[in-house]
Specification:
It is a multi-pass membrane protein. The protein is mainly α. It has seven helices and no strands. α3 packs antiparallel against α4.
Length: about 170
């Protein structure tokens, strides 16, 4: 049997994720931007299921994503062989995350590195890399905004009032 706090945490996390999807898809429709998958992935990597340190964790993940995206992008300058550059970029990303005390977000940084460095056959390497860096950073910012909206004290009070009214009615 799940307790009320756990159900509330699951519902809030699900609402954050759905909000992320809706915001990204709405903005992509508004701006006529087609390559939304990398923005969506970046939003989801920034969002956290736990509300207690959600903003701190979101900022940590954004810092790590920036490190990963920049590492991947800069390594593309040095050598065209993806095997060599991606291996080095992954190592650099891990080391930099450690040096900047971002170990908790190293996996998201590695995802950003790989997102930036991979491209479809026939696609121009630099156009793809720049587009993906922008996608990762945009997704990170949207994830931060969503986290802030869900976890600032005013919206938290409103959500708690709504949930308590629903519980008072017996879940009608």
């Amino acid at each position: 049997m799940m307790n009320r706090a756990r159900i509330q945490r699951i519902l809030i996390y699900a609402a954050k994720c759905v909000s992320g999807v809706l915001v990204v898809l709405f903005l992509s429709w508004l701006l006529d931007y087609q390559d939304v998958v990398w923005v969506l992935i970046s939003v989801m990597l920034v969002l956290s299921p736990d509300g207690s340190d959600a903003l701190t964790l979101a900022v940590t993940r954004i810092k790590a994503n920036v490190i990963g995206a920049i590492s991947g992008f800069l390594l593309l300058l040095f050598h065209p062989n993806l095997l060599i550059t991606m291996s080095i970029a992954v190592c650099i990303t891990v080391v930099l995350c450690n040096l900047f005390n971002l170990e908790a977000a190293t996996r998201t940084a590695l995802a950003a590195t790989i997102i930036v460095m991979t491209h479809e056959a026939g696609a121009h390497l630099w156009d793809t890399a720049v587009g993906r860096v922008i996608s990762v950073l945009t997704g990170c910012m949207l994830g931060l905004v969503i986290t802030f909206i869900f976890h600032n004290r005013y919206t938290k009070q409103t959500a708690e009032m709504i949930l308590s009214k629903t519980a008072d009615r017996g879940g009608e």
